Automatic annotation (TrEMBL):
Active site: D79
Keyword Transcription: no
EC number(s) reported in the record: 3.6.1.9
Residues annotated as site: Important for substrate specificity: R15, T80, Q163
Protein family (similarity comment): Belongs to the Maf family. YhdE subfamily.
Subcellular location per the Swiss-Prot or TrEMBL entry: Cytoplasm
Catalytic reaction list: dTTP + H2O = dTMP + diphosphate + H(+); UTP + H2O = UMP + diphosphate + H(+)
Name this protein carries in UniProt: dTTP/UTP pyrophosphatase
Protein's organism: Amorphus orientalis
Length: 223
């Protein structure tokens, strides 16, 4: 009997874990990474998202190599970037940063890029970058203050989470919704199936421990 392939998610994000669960995938291991996300001089937002996704995947690969209990695995990583033109908005860590993001996005269109990197068990690198165009309505002072008070913005690219209260700010969206949440599911599934990883099939996975976050993902059902 062929052993079930192993999937390592190079992230501690409950959002990405929940998105994978949505299409029936529960990673065997979580490997949160810590890479320098500072853009390089003149680096385009789409290139930044792709580079960071690859850096995360490569860091997770090194950790997987060192863990003799894992063996060859598919390593999946992603990074999401919100951009106004070529200006990359931060992953807001403080309320002033979040307020600046919301004020900049108010009444304007922006682009959301997610770089997705898959390193195969044979250590081949597969990359995709997905773009979604989003437009916000003009935000009132009260709406900005309400959203800031919610705390949903913390750690989010561009200072908002489209899957939460910020959904009411979006007047137009062209492209992948799940890309804006943090993992474009169509493209991610295509990367996995292209390397023989089963999607929409029963792998009888063992659920990994989910790191805590402001909005934790639903826990996987036990095998």
């Amino acid at each position: 009997m062929t052993a079930s392939p192993t999937l390592v998610l190079a992230s501690g994000s409950p959002r990405r874990l929940a998105l994978l669960e949505q299409i029936g995938i529960v990673p065997d291991h979580l490997a949160p990474t810590d890479v320098d996300e500072t853009p390089m001089d003149g680096e385009a937002p789409n290139r930044l998202a792709q580079r960071l996704a690859q850096m995360k995947a490569e860091e997770a690969l090194e950790r997987t190599r060192a863990d003799k209990t894992i063996g060859p695995a598919h390593i999946l990583a992603a990074d999401t970037v919100v951009a106004l033109g070529r200006r990359v908005l931060p992953k807001a860590e403080g309320i002033a940063e979040a307020e600046a993001c919301l004020s900049a996005l108010s009444g304007r269109g922006h682009r959301v890029f997610t770089g997705v990197c898959l390193i195969t068990p044979k250590e081949r690198v597969r990359l995709r970058t997905v773009e979604t165009r989003v437009k916000f309505k003009r935000l009132s002072r009260a709406e900005i203050d309400f959203y800031l008070a919610s705390g949903e913005w913390h750690g989010k690219a561009g200072g908002y989470a489209i899957q939460g209260l910020a959904a009411i700010f979006v007047s137009k969206l062209i492209g992948s919704y799940t890309n804006v949440v943090g993992l474009p599911l169509f493209e991610t599934a295509a990367l996995l199936t292209g390397d023989g990883f089963p999607v929409a099939q029963d792998r009888s996975p063992t659920a990994p421990e989910v790191p805590s976050e402001d909005a934790p993902a639903a826990q996987p059902n036990p095998a």
